[in-house]
Specification:
This protein has a single domain, classed as Growth Hormone, Chain: A. Helices cover 78% and strands 0% of the residues. The protein contains 18 helices and no strands. Helix 2 runs parallel beside helix 4 and helix 11 runs antiparallel to helix 15.
Length: 423
């Protein structure tokens, strides 16, 4: 099959769509749950925190699990777990049980992105990695974009419980599809030899020292580059968590929109986010063509994303929901261009056998910030309003870019393969 590596990215995109469809179901049902289960903004922050806490804890464990069992079985197990957990939401009777089911969802969904980044590291040379990451990360926006109209329609046609069941069911056939079609690069019978050589030669040019005598965590944690990525994720992640979970409540509270109005508006930022995934994937190659190294190009790409993200501050002065959604969409676009850079860095900086673990540990730092920010949002939104929140998120991606400039350094390259003497 020609271009098989891009078909692999297509599979990763589908997985991410399913992941975010299930994840976003809660935010769309939030106004209904607020009424039906007597949940306020503070309770909602606890529910979201349950997901974020388990996602934060299990990202490095999921990454280590995927490094151990491999992507074929590991990704399928993750999808099956989170699909069942999403369906269990239908049995919630209050904020506490909903938070418990949300916690289970986070355990399974923690495997998606470490697995996807590990696949990109295995299937792509460095110059194509941000493009590949941008493509599969489109799934985040697509899943979140599908959720408002689809979930709103299911609720209006049936009820909120059915919304969780139907969105959860989508993942089960995908898990079977993944098992049947995915194989690692060295075993895939559909991979042409010319494409295999293109991938392997590009990887060899910027291969990172393997350090086989060390355990995976001992390779990752002491490295300055790990902390550059982890701290960068810490500052960047809260903005996306806010866009993902709080926009429907923001529209209902600040602009008095009902469920139909939310369905009309809430999907728009995620279309912009999808565009950001694709455009952001080309930021680094653009800077590489200007003569910069891969690592310097990543830093410049992150800075450009942070400058665009600052436009989110204008939500504060929006006269109505249309303008508010426009500036939120600009912020979502900017943040996802940043994600194309940040999510790719573990594949650039660490040996292949440690990429899943490195991504998971960095993701834990990002979700720790998302968790803290969510708890703060619940109280600020209830007692002060959304203005301080939008002002804060406008600066976060710029701070993350500054961290990359301060801490990133070129990793130690792998030793060249020995040349055998002629007989």
């Amino acid at each position: 099959m020609p271009g098989l590596r891009w078909w692999i990215v297509g599979l990763l995109t589908l997985a991410t769509i399913v992941n975010y469809l299930d994840r976003s179901c809660l935010s769309v049902t939030a106004p209904v749950l607020k009424e039906k289960l007597n949940i306020d903004e503070v309770d909602f922050s606890y529910i979201v925190t349950g997901f974020q806490l388990s996602y934060m804890v299990f990202q490095p464990l999921a990454g280590r699990f995927l490094d151990w069992v491999g992507l074929r079985l590991g990704m399928a197990a993750a999808v099956i777990w989170w699909s069942i957990a999403n369906m269990l939401h239908a049995f919630a009777g209050g904020w506490f049980s909903l938070a418990a089911f949300r916690t289970l969802l986070g355990v399974g969904e923690a495997g998606n992105f470490p697995g996807a980044i590990k696949a990109v590291a295995e299937w792509f040379p460095p110059k194509e990695r941000t493009i590949a990451t941008g493509i599969f990360n489109v799934g985040a926006g697509v899943g979140a974009m599908i959720a408002p109209p689809a979930v709103a329609w299911i609720i209006l046609t049936y009820d909120w419980q059915t919304a969780f069941v139907l969105t959860g069911l989508v993942g089960l056939p995908f898990a079977l599809f993944w098992i049947l079609l995915y194989r690692p690069i060295e075993k895939h019978k559909w991979l042409r030899e010319s494409e295999r050589q293109h991938i392997l030669k590009g990887q060899a040019a910027l291969a990172v020292e393997e350090q086989p005598e060390k355990g995976v965590w001992r390779i990752v944690l002491p490295q300055r580059n790990f902390w550059a990525v982890a701290i960068g994720r810490f500052f960047a992640e809260p903005a996306w968590q806010f866009f993902l979970y709080w926009i429907p409540l923001y529209l209902a509270t600040e602009h008095k929109l009902d469920l139909k109005g939310i369905a009309i508006f809430a999907w728009v930022p995620f279309v912009a986010a999808d565009a950001g995934c694709i455009v952001g994937g080309f930021f680094s190659p653009m800077f590489v063509k200007l003569g910069l190294s891969v690592l310097r190009a990543r830093q410049c790409a992150a800075t450009l994303s942070g400058l665009i993200m600052f436009c989110a501050i204008f939500v504060v002065w929006s006269p109505g929901p249309g303008w508010a959604i426009f500036f939120i969409a600009v912020g979502a676009f900017a943040h996802q261009t940043m994600s194309s850079t940040l999510l790719t860095l573990p594949a650039d900086l660490f040996p292949k056998r440690t990429v899943g673990t490195a991504y998971g540990l960095a993701g834990t730092c990002g979700y720790a910030a998302g968790l803290i920010f969510t708890l703060i949002i619940g109280h600020v939104a209830k007692y002060v309003g959304y203005t301080p929140i939008f002002i804060t998120i406008a600066f976060l991606d710029l701070i993350a870019a500054g961290v990359l400039w301060s801490l990133l350094q070129a990793p130690k390259p792998a030793a060249p393969a020995p040349v055998e003497a002629a007989a």
